[in-house]
Structures are given as structure tokens and as C-alpha cells.
């Protein structure tokens, strides 16, 4: 049976740290997104950019929200574990009456709370700059949850496997950043050459970004096969991470 008291304590501790470090965890991502919006607003006005669905900036705004949430979900969980390894506090958690899987659940739930706060905060600020509105809140939170679960699992996996900041940063640069930028955050896949389009269609994260962006439109086209593909991918990622935490690796005895 899960130790809900321990899970709650870990979540409360991580949320408290997140709020105390708001200048890094909240204001820094928001500043990055605001710079993107201001740059693309200038480019859009100067070059008269537009998409089939309307304004180019309104098209990329949902992608910016989900991209920053994905990056923060990965950074939060991976940085937590690596920092705890380096200062030795992870040993204290392991000696406590807490299962390793409960630690994983706590980190994922923490990332869910932080990701939702970050997404809503960014959306609120965006409404003052561009014409953006959420039409389907259910799908907005549903696909947001999927993104947070995947990237927090990825962060937990990396934080458990590696022991240094260099490894964590390298994995972010060579995997997390490319998968974010090549998922249709800044462009529509319909404008790509056919050979590139066929490659990106095998990226499940592309469908998540696409469906998340659709929650900002009045009409939402739900594709059961694409969603099933995404769910299988998320479930596989979660299962692998749970297995690694259950079996243990290196410092996890």
C-alpha cells in the first residue's frame, strides 16, 4: 500500500522549493516565452506572416506554452535527483520507510502541479499581448498532463541513470530540445517536404502538440488512432521508468 503521508511530504517540500525559487522556476521560463512572442510579433508585422488558421503568433503560442512546460518537467525531476545524489540527501530518502516507486510518484505529481501552474501563468500573460483563448479546457489539461508525465518520467530516468550535471544538460541539448523543436512548435508540418513530413509523423510528441493546439480552436477533431499511439508511447515510457526505479540503479540499492 502506498505511503500517502510520505508522498504528500515530498510534494509539499518540492512545491515549497519551486515557489521559493520563483525567479528561476517561474519568471525565467516566462521571460523566455515573452521574448519569443515579442520577436515573432515583430517578424509577423514586418513580413506579414500568417497561417491557414490565422495569425502566426497565435499559432505558435500554444506550442510555446507546452514547450516550456515540457522543458521544466524534465529539468525539475532530473535536477532534483542529480542534486540529491551529489549532496547525499538521496541516501536519507532511501533509508526512510518510502518505496522507490513512491519517490517516482511524488516527483511526477510535483511536476504535474508545477507544469499546470506554469502553463496557466504563461497563458494569462499571453492574453495581454495576443488574441488567444482556450475553447476546450478538458483537452487542454488532458494533453498537458500527457506531456508532463512523459517529460517528468524522462527526467526521472536521466536523474537516476546519470550522476553529473554535464550528462543531464547533454541529454537535454541532444534529445529534449530537438524533440521539442521538431514537434511543430514553430511550424506546421503541412509546409514540410514529403520526406521530412513522413519522418516527423512517427514522432508521438508531434500529435500531442497538435492536439493541444487544437484546444485553442472552436472545432476539435479527435483522432482515436493517433491518440491511441500517444497513449501507448506514454504508458511505455512510464512503465520503463517505474521498472528502473523498482529494480534500482547505481546509487539506488
Tally the helices: what do you get?
10
* Helix/sheet category: mainly alpha
Question: Over the alpha carbons, how many angstroms does the gyration radius reach?
Answer: 19 Å
Biggest β-sheet: count, sense, barrel? 2 strands, antiparallel
What fraction of the residues are assigned to beta strands by DSSP?
under 5%
Tell me the span between the first and last alpha carbons. 21 Å
Side by side, the strands of the main sheet go: 1-2
Proportion in helices: over 70%
Task: Categorize the overall geometry.
Answer: globular
What is the overall pLDDT average?
83
**Tally of strands:** 2
Count of distinct structural domains: 1
Helix/strand order, N-terminal first = HHEEHHHHHHHH
Describe this structure in words.
It is built from ten helices and two strands; from the N terminus they run H-H-E-E-H-H-H-H-H-H-H-H. The chain is mainly alpha-helical and 253 residues long. It has one domain (4-247). A two-stranded antiparallel sheet has the order 1-2. The mean pLDDT is 83.
